[in-house]
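User: My collaborator sent over this chain with a note saying "see what the structure looks like." That's all I know about it. Can you take a look?
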Amino acid sequence: MKALELKIPPPVVALLVAGGMWGLARHAPLVDLPQSVRIGVAVACALAGVGIDIAALVSFQRARTTFNPMKLEKVSALVCSGIYRLTRNPMYLGSVLILAAWAVYLSSAWSLLGPVAFVLYMNRFQIAPEERVLASKFGDRYAAYRAKVRRWL
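Assistant: Without extra context I'll predict from the sequence alone. Here is the result:
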């Protein structure tokens, strides 16, 4: 399965998962929630996800390093400030929140499998290889950061 490592850009993975969630929701019973509650919770989750993504991008910009997870050889700085003090993977966390918003909006319990699938895929095929690169580039500094800050939350 190493062949899938760092092969599919995370936004594409999120879009594929979102499409799968939509497909599941079309063929599964709906959860009966008032539309105002459903949309309110979905918007709140989506805004939180977008906010976290923006905070992560700002942190990368300030550090003047790449935020492209497909070009790890271009990483020039270990970002430990801003949102990165709370989570090592805020962009992926933002995507999970956006997928959770989509699941709530779809109003299908089965669609909640989407964010779970995204986390499992990202842990194995994106984050694990990223962590190997960061460990080799930044050594003890990355090890200390990793010991202090959780992968997700």
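A starting point for your reply to your collaborator: The radius of gyration is 17 Å.
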